[in-house]
Structures are given as C-alpha cells and as structure tokens.
TrEMBL record:
PANTHER family: DEHYDROGENASES, SHORT CHAIN (PTHR45024), SCP2 DOMAIN-CONTAINING PROTEIN (PTHR45024:SF2). The keyword Oxidoreductase applies. InterPro entries: KR_dom (IPR057326), NAD(P)-bd_dom_sf (IPR036291), Peroxisomal_Beta-Oxidation (IPR051687), Sc_DH/Rdtase_CS (IPR020904), SDR_fam (IPR002347). The gene is couN. Keywords: Oxidoreductase. Residues 6-189 form the Ketoreductase domain. This is 4-hydroxyphenyl-beta-hydroxyacyl-CoA dehydrogenase. SUPFAM superfamilies: NAD(P)-binding Rossmann-fold domains (SSF51735). Belongs to the short-chain dehydrogenases/reductases (SDR) family. GO terms for molecular function: oxidoreductase activity.
Length: 305
C-alpha cells in the first residue's frame, strides 16, 4: 500500500475524519493538500503531518465553488507537481425536520456536500486526464444517503446524490483509468454525536473508555482512524479494478452497499390503472415494502446505557 510519489487533496481535512484520511495517506507516502475553513486548524494539521515526516500544504477556503476546487488542484500541482487522488470529505450539518428546514438550511448543506463534491471532482478529473495516468476519486457518502435519517432531508439528499454521481463517473471515466468510489463511514465525530443513543458511547470514548463490541461490530462505529485504511486502499494500485462502489466502514465492520434492485414485479396487459394497482398491491407488493432509516440493535436503542 505504498503511495510514495502520489499527491492527494482531502477536503475538510483539518480535523475529524478528514484529518484521519490525510494522516493515513501521508503515512503511506503521499503528499497531501489539507483543506479547512479555519487557518489555525489547517496549519495544525499540516504541522502534525510534517512533524511525522510527511509532506503537506494547506488551502484555507470553503468547499463548494469552482474557484475553491481549482485552488485545491492548483495547490497540489504547484507544490508537489501533480495530482493523483481526490478525497471529497468536507461537510456541514443543518439538521431540522422538514417543516422547520429553511431554504438556507437546505442550500448550505447541498452546496458543501453535493456541489463541493461535483466541483472538486470535476477539477481533479480535468487534471487526471491532462496527466494521462489515471486517478482515484474517493467521495464520502453516508448511511443517511442509503436509508434516510430523521431530521436530515438536506444531508440525506446530498449523500444519496453523491453515490449516484459516483456510479455515473465510474462509467464515464473507466477508459481514462480513473476509479470513482463512495465511502460511507460511521465514526465517533460531532456528526454522529447528534444520534441520541450513540452520544453516551462517544462521550465515554473521549473519556478513554473503549467502545463495546456491539457498537464496533453490529453498529459498525469506531474512531476516525478505523475508517482511514479503506481510503488508503482505494487510493492505491491494489484497488485499480474497484470502481462504482458504495463501501461501508466503521469500527470492526467493512461492507458493501448494494445497488438498488427491483425486488417485486408485476405485469398487466395494457398497463396499470389505479384499480389494477390496488388489486395487485396486496398479493405482490405489500409484503415486500422496504424499511427506512438505519436499523440498530434493540438493546441499544430501547434501553439506557
């Protein structure tokens, strides 16, 4: 898993999951462009990587605009001579139930997560194609985008769309040797702390308590460092044939999300009227309805810690 000579951009990498990704890529030999909206946070991340013997530079700018995307790619090329890996991790939350979510709440999350992924990937792909040596796109999704999550209309929409874009890019970029994958992490961060039954475990972890096996395995949640390995794998030559996938990782669990499939089908000559649908529904579809939201062990969600 040697990434020596490779250059990566990791958006939103001043702290949390993004910092863990950047540190792991640097540990494996890649030079890294750190991105954050706060200068002191970005500088601290760069200092930590360089102190450990890695190479890093900071670009302080909010992700979303084409200008920021170009600045990130330009920094990689100007400082390290090339770009090989784009990790789109930057994100924010503006959680509210639908009837309380404002236009600004919706737009802010869509701008950072969805538009930011699009603009950064587009800028990276332009550079990859110019270099003619392939590249790696690693876009951060979420279980919320796969199954929905209460209070996260904006976030769930953005994360679902990111997986849709990744599938499209995997087809469009195959001939250029560019892979595109989505990683859906579950880790103890400020974002997962908003889930009520997980909050005590995250608080305990910060106090030095280990996460219990049921959290690390059945919930599949661990530390940011637990996620970083799959980022390095996808960035490496070992994953040259892995593309168009949505990969779940957290704690002690690594898994693949399936692509949506037709699960129940009926046919009716001449098409379906409303009455035809009503007649067909109980026998073919009623017992095949999909659940919504993440499913967690009952002993965790139904009992106090």
């Amino acid at each position: 898993m040697d990434l020596t000579g490779k250059v990566a951009v990791v958006t939103g990498s001043g702290q949390g999951l993004g910092l863990a990704y950047a540190q792991e890529l640097a540990r494996r030999g890649a030079a890294v462009v750190i991105n954050d909206v706060r200068q002191e946070t970005a500088d601290a991340a760069v200092a930590g990587i360089t102190a450990a013997g890695g190479r890093a530079v900071a670009v302080v700018a909010p992700v979303g605009t084409t200008a920021t995307a170009i600045a990130l790619v330009d920094a990689a090329v100007a400082t390290f001579g090339r770009l090989d890996i784009m990790v789109t991790n930057a994100g924010i939350l503006r959680d509210k139930v639908l009837w309380k979510m404002s236009d600004d709440d919706f737009d802010a999350v869509i701008d950072v997560h969805l538009r930011g992924t699009f603009t950064c990937v587009r800028a990276a792909v332009e550079r990859f194609r110019e270099q003619g040596q392939g590249g790696r796109l690693i876009c951060i999704g979420s279980p919320a985008g796969q199954r929905g999550n209460f209070g996260q209309t904006n976030y769930s929409a953005a994360k679902a769309a990111i997986v849709g874009m990744v599938r499209t890019w995997a087809m469009e970029l195959k001939k250029a040797g560019i892979t595109a994958n989505a990683v859906c992490p579950v880790a103890a961060t400020a974002m997962t702390e908003t889930i009520p039954f997980l909050a005590p475990y995250i608080e305990g972890m910060r106090a030095g308590e280990p996460l219990p096996a049921v959290i690390r395995r059945e919930v599949g949640m661990g530390t940011p460092g637990d996620v970083a390995g799959v980022i390095a794998f996808l960035a490496s030559d070992a994953a040259s044939d892995v593309t168009g996938q949505a990969i779940s990782i957290g704690g002690d669990r690594l898994a693949l999300w399936s692509h949506p499939q037709l699960t129940a089908t009926a046919f009716h000559d001449g098409g379906f009227s409303a009455d035809d649908v009503a007649a067909q529904w109980p026998t073919t579809f009623a017992g095949r309805l999909e659940s919504v939201g993440e499913e967690f062990p009952a002993e965790l969600t139904g009992a106090a810690r």
